[in-house]
Amino acid sequence: MTNLLLGILLAAAVGCSSPSGNDTAGATDAQTTTNAQQTPGRNDRNEAAVMPGIEVLASDNFSQLKGKRVGLITNPTGIDNSLKSTIDILHEAPSVELTALFAPEHGVRGDYVAGAAVANEVDAKTGVKVYSLHGKTKKPTAEMLKNVDVLVYDIQDIGTRSYTFISTMGKAMEAAAENGKEFMVLDRPNPLGGNKVEGCIVEPGCFSFVSQYPIPYIYALTPGELAEYLNNEGLLAGGVKVKLTVIPMKGWSRDMTFADTGMPWVLPSPHIPTPETALLYPATGIMGELDYVSIGVGYTLPFKLTGATWINAQRLTEKLTSLSIPGVEFRPIHYKPFYAIFKGENLNGVEIYITDPEAAPLSLIQFYIMQELAAMNPAKKAFAAATQSRLSMFDKVTGSTKIRQLFGKNYKVSDMQDYWNKDVEQWIAKTRQYQLYK
Questions:
Q1: pLDDT score of 44 more than 90
Q2: What's the rounded Cα separation, in Å, for the pair 282 and 11?
Q3: Burial (Cβ within 10 Å: 0-12, 13-18, ≥19) of residue 248
Q4: Helices assigned H by DSSP within 4-110
Q5: In what order do the strands lie in the sheet with 182-186?
Q6: Maximum CA pair distance of the chain?
Q7: DSSP secondary structure, 111-160, as one string
Q8: Beta-strand relationship, 265-266 and 36-37
Q9: Whole-angstrom distance between the N-terminal and C-terminal Cα of the chain?
């Protein structure tokens, strides 16, 4: 979609990266990823307003998988509303032959730490062979697929392009097409909803695992809808097309927050502990790639903060508040990171509150922060001390070299916001035909 600074640089090199060079598709530590955070008071999956694809599939007695050898791409977020793993559901289903598992970053059970290459192994619980898609190999090989008829994908996404699980999905679709296999997506909600679109489409020279396909930064599609778009628009490598089936959710609508779904949230990576963090990830993650301020990774509020030793917290809060950014409020905060950038240092800055997710220009929040910091501290402008590798990563995450060029002239949001959102209306019109939900 990348991790945590050090872990993130590593993760980007190995393959799975996210914005903010601070949390890759997942930056995880094994214990955190396996601990699901359930919606308070919800123990009966029938109480949930939304049934994820895996439950819809099960309700039809797995008929779409009968007689087929199944390879499953998943991680701890692949669960039903009772928190049961899709791995175990498919393995126990009498009509399903689960022959292989495919592991993105952190592994299918969440037992690999951030940046670690995932090994080919055998799943201890089911005895099914696990193939790594996070290491030297990011795309299933013909050998991996020899005992598979259909690849099934079930991972919770967070709706932002640089969160790399969607890159894993696309590459797996390519592999399935190239090897004559079917592909199935068990659909899940987009926690940013189905209407918010922000950011330009990725431009030549900026494609990478954090910007794998020409889509906006915030793209307003579910994994199943995105799979349909990539497949039907010929955007998979070589223009290949796969035989694709999407098992849609029941009960989801485009205006839903994740809380509205009644579904349990399992953190897809350690720095996305709650659905609210998914809203904050696009608000600070791009800025986090520059390593010049803390964005809360390493503290208890990942992606929710901006802090540094040289920031005047009260003044920055006042300046940001005076901008009257829709749907956003700020307050001064003082904190000391436990790890990552500025570990053990006393930092001053702002805490970000998204009060109206629909109205808030999520991805522009960090640019407003960089604008006001540049005005307050001309010697600390965002790009001034960044290394070339950090600047390159910034461009890959934004998907364009123009954003840095336009913003860097005067450090004014007004200089880049039109270019940043130039593709929004076209994207909305083009993807309407792929929407599976109203």
A1: no
A2: 18
A3: middle
A4: 5-14, 30-34, 53-59, 86-92
A5: 121-122, 129-132, 97-103, 69-74, 150-154, 182-186, 243-247
A6: 66
A7: -S-TTPPPPPEE-TTT--EEEESSSS--S--TTTTTT-SEEEEE----SB
A8: antiparallel
A9: 25
Tally: H helices and E strands in the chain: 14, 12
Which amino acid, one-letter code, is at 142? A
H/E stretch holding 70: strand 69-74
Q: Please, which residues have CB within 8 angstroms of residue 307's CB and are 6 or more apart in sequence? A: 293, 294, 296, 313, 333, 334, 335, 342, 347, 348, 349, 350
Do residues 242 and 231 touch, judged by C-beta distance below 8 A? yes
- Asked if residue 236 lies in contact with residue 173, where contact means CB atoms within 8 angstroms, the answer is yes
* Beta carbons within 10 angstroms of residue 314's beta carbon: 12
* Count of C-beta atoms within a 10 Å radius of residue 107: 25
Task: Provide the pairing of β-strand 69-74 with 150-154.
Answer: parallel
Q: Walk across the sheet containing 347-354 and list its strands.
A: 305-308, 347-354, 328-335
Q: What's the pLDDT score for residue 135?
A: 87
Please write the tens of the pLDDT for every residue from 48-99. 999 999 999 999 999 999 999 999 999 999 999 999 999 999 999 999 999 9
pTM of the full structure: 0.90
DSSP string for 84-112: -BHHHHHHH-TT-EEEEEEE-TT-TTS-S
| Residue from 217, 192, 387 nearest 286 by CA | 217
- Band of pLDDT at residue 4, cut at 50, 70 and 90: very low
Beta pairing partners, 350: 306, 332
pLDDT at 117 over 60: yes
Q: What is the pLDDT of residue 46?
A: 52
Environment class of residue 238 by beta-carbon count within 10 Å: exposed (0-12), middle (13-18) or buried (19+)? exposed
Q: Which contacts (CB < 8 Å, 24+ apart) does range 226-229 have?
A: 226/166, 226/169, 227/153, 227/169, 227/170, 227/173, 227/183, 227/185, 228/434, 228/436, 229/431, 229/434
State which H helix or E strand residue 329 sits in: strand 328-335
Q: Is residue 80 a contact partner of residue 266, using CB atoms and an 8 Å limit?
A: no
- Mark 258-283 as b/e (b = at least 16 C-beta within 10 Å): beebbbbbbbbbbbbbebbbbbbbbb
pLDDT single digits (tens) 337-393: 999 999 999 999 999 999 999 999 999 999 999 999 999 999 999 999 999 999 999
Other Cβ atoms within 10 Å of 78 Cβ, number: 27
Beta bridge partners of 154: 74
**DSSP structural state of residue 39:** P
Sign (positive or negative) of CA dihedral 424, 296, 30, 14: positive
